[in-house]
From TrEMBL:
Keywords: Monooxygenase, Oxidoreductase. Pfam families: FAD_binding_3 (PF01494). GO terms for molecular function: FAD binding; monooxygenase activity. Residues 8-360 form the FAD-binding domain. This is FAD-binding domain-containing protein.
Length: 419
């Protein structure tokens, strides 16, 4: 351009799971063969693997298979067949077995290192497609005229100006693109989570299963992701008040071992003490009001959002990453089948809105129940815990899990679980 701006067919804001998966999907769907015309803007100087690990259920594996990267990961991680939930107040343990008989071994539940997933997706993209240290600061729409098509002008923090025919916001919970579209701001759930990754070079010896511990206002868990790595988390009904404290890994570790999790089993605390401090975080759990997901303007002309930028959710049903992978596949298919980009983006939002709303709502309610009620009065909390221990984990949770994990909405392969 004469004015010094850069032209791109598609600009994807955010180089996380949603952004990279969307870029790969657009290539494979023929929207941008060979990646020509796609530009991914990542505000950090390199790919970031926040969250340490990601639980991938069949819907996520079907999406990864559609993206052509599932085979890179399934051989590296063992299948997880069951979860043990121990109530520390009553001493009872319930075992939840994942419905492995419904799917092939290739797409059964596994825990995957997020960095490995990002690398697998990034390897599918041509060099230079991801532009690092590129923070978006403003968006302006240029209406279509008789001599030009509709476009969007992006201004970056470094002064660069980019003109995009299609803009896809994959820039997370605090999305600049979602805010520009007018989607409602994310809400606090009243819960926060501490996450870490513990490394055992000689092997940890734990069984390949999820172990979860419940007590009043605390939910903690262990999840092996390999023979040498264990992902752990602790969800609590407090919010880190000091940014310094919540960002200081030494203080976070001390808070878990000496305060919030001091009463947890020795096995759990031993894992926590082996944490790699570079992979330790503490953050509030945010979500978008389900009504806002259902009715909000998630597409305007040639601009839309995907992943957490569209439907941020709490992690209790492990669908944040999986749903982002679903978004990528459905979005690319919608664009490839539409007469115009605006029609394709509108079709994508129409297809994803209902499932996304369901996922956000169920994840929030499930977390509230599993937590024994978040910040409720004693009597109400007692009723919620009674429901959780005697009904929810036995009857409700398996049914919810089945509709989320083994019913993949608009992903065609999921309609036949044996495929």
């Amino acid at each position: 351009m004469a004015d010094g701006s850069l032209d791109a067919e598609v600009v994807i804001v955010g180089g996380g799971i949603a952004g990279l998966a969307t870029a790969v999907a657009l290539q494979r769907a023929g929207v941008a063969p060979g990646g020509r015309g796609i530009l991914v803007l990542e505000r950090h100087p390199e790919l970031r693997a926040t969250g340490t690990a990601m639980t991938v259920f069949p819907n996520g594996w079907f999406a990864l298979r559609a993206l052509g990267v599932a085979h890179k990961l399934t051989s590296r991680y063992d299948v997880i067949e069951k979860s043990r939930v121990t109530n520390l107040e009553t001493g009872t343990t319930q075992v939840f077995r994942f419905a492995g008989n419904k799917v092939s071994d290739e797409v059964r539940m596994r825990a995957v290192d997020r960095k490995a997933l990002l690398d697998a997706l990034a390897d599918e993209l041509p060099p230079g497609m991801v532009r690092f240290s590129s923070k978006l600061v403003s968006i302006d729409a240029i209406p279509a005229t008789s001599g030009s098509s509709e476009a969007t002008v992006l201004r970056l923090e470094d002064g660069a100006v980019i003109r995009a025919k299609i803009l896809i916001g994959c820039d997370g919970v605090h999305s600049v693109v979602a805010r520009w579209l007018g989607l409602s701001e994310p809400l606090r759930s009243g819960r926060s989570t501490i996450r870490g990754l513990s490394v055992y070079p000689s092997g940890h010896g734990l069984k390949q299963e999820i172990r979860q511990y419940l007590s009043n206002g605390i939910r903690a868990g262990l999840l092996p992701i390999s023979n040498t790595g264990i992902y752990w988390y602790l969800v609590n009904n407090t919010i880190p008040q000091e940014k310094v404290a919540s960002a200081d890994p030494v203080k976070i570790l001390r808070e878990v071992t000496e305060n919030l999790g001091a009463h947890l089993p020795a096995e759990y605390l031993d894992v926590v003490r082996n944490t790699d401090l570079r992979n330790l975080s503490w953050a509030p759990l945010l979500y978008r009001n389900p009504w806002g997901v259902l009715t909000g303007k998630a597409a305007r002309g040639t601009v839309t959002v995907a992943g957490d930028a569209f439907h941020p959710m709490t992690p209790e049903m492990a669908q944040g990453g999986c749903s982002a992978l679903e978004d990528a596949v459905v979005l690319a298919r919608a664009l490839s089948q539409a007469a115009t980009p605006s029609e394709g983006l509108a079709a994508y939002v129409a297809k994803r809105r209902g499932r996304a709303t369901w996922l956000v709502a169920v994840a929030y309610v499930s977390g509230w129940v599993q937590q024994g009620g978040t910040n409720v009065h004693a009597a109400v909390g007692w009723v919620v815990r009674l429901f959780r221990d005697w009904i929810f984990f036995r009857f409700v949770f398996p049914r919810l899990a089945d509709t989320m994990w083994y019913n993949c909405g608009d992903l065609v392969p999921c309609k036949n679980h044996t495929e």
